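Bug report (template v2)

What were you trying to do?
Predict the complex of my protein with adenosine-5'-triphosphate.

What happened?
Run completed; filing so the output is reviewed.

Input:
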Amino acid sequence: TTMKTNDSGSGDVRLTGISKTYGAFTAVHPLDLTVPQGSFFALLGASGCGKTTTLRMIAGLEEPSSGTVHLGDQDVTALPPYKRPVNTVFQSYALFPHLDIFENVAFGLRRRGIKSVKKQVEDMLELVQLGEQARKKPHQLSGGQQQRVAVARALINHPKVLLLDEPLGALDLKLRRQMQLELKRIQTEVGITFVHVTHDQEEAMTMADTVAVMNGGRVEQLGSPADLYENPHTTFVANFLGTSNLIEAEVDSRSGDDIVLKAGGGKLVLPEARCSAPTTTGGKVLVGVRPEKITLTHADDAGEIPEGRNRITGKIADSSFIGVSTQYVIDSSVCPDFEVYAQNIDRDARLVPGADVVLHWSPGHTFGLDAAQD
Ligand code: ATP
């Protein structure tokens, strides 16, 4: 489209040693982060982790206590927000209630003294699929449509970077899901860098190419959604992105590229490449596996489980049918302090509370965390 920013590198966001303190409190610890031009980047974390502060430092709405912000080759650290090639969409869309949709979107162009705005505004309304709504007032639109107006109004100025601060926070769940896909489509179409702040892990996973998981003012892990989900490096990331089963184990020996661990009475195998803990013999590792990677087999059929799979035994404590699968809570002596979660798509009628089962999964779906890290 006509929106594409072509000069390469111009939309990189580069944070170098950026930090923010409020008196004695550190909201963001010195942070180095590069968001490549054209990517959809999410800052994900619980309330208070520093994600909004980080976004506001990129926007120029918050002055960093240390460090620099570069947009492409330009050091913008000292520039006020309006001089940065950046626009922000907030959760409160802040549309002008007395102006119609066309004029809301045209506003940025008119303010810059641009006379012929028609084509640009129409293209932009087309992009956000509001071509039909141009002459309506904001209050005549749904929440999702208003949000799209806010996006169009921010994009019309051709920012190099669009910052989105919980932009879908005010929408109900179904509309949120639709808008996630919609924003992703818009980003792909215009090809500019989006930096999106959210506390919703599913939202970050759906939309972003790269996610930075923040905790306590630090980035705990940076990666693609699949990477973070399949291979979390900390218990925080493992638990924040979905449900994980973490089993305490001890390094026993090595076998090729694998580590063999003792857990309860049994053994578990973990590819060394998927372990972020030290792997010296006798060291403690938290062995993780996602519930949907586990197969549940009734103890009577344990003999049919193929060799080479990780396995633990347990008893079904609870089960709940959730349509696509059934979720199980399992008590296991291998992890005496907590329950194991498993999902199963087979509908074995014997898998009811009280049944003895074997949980088994491929070593390749196992990850290892540092038990001593927190
Ligand atoms: P939320 O999703 O709730 O906005 P967040 O992860 O975006 O959370 P920030 O808004 O970045 O978190 O705030 C990080 C921390 O800094 C919080 O503990 C917050 O209370 C604190 N903080 C933010 N602004 C100020 C301020 N002006 N003065 C003092 N503390 C502040």
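What did the reviewer find?
The pocket of adenosine-5'-triphosphate is lined by residues 22, 25, 27, 45, 47-53, 199 (CB under 6 Å). The helical segments are 51-59, 101-111, 118-127, 143-155, 173-190, 201-207, 225-230, 235-240.
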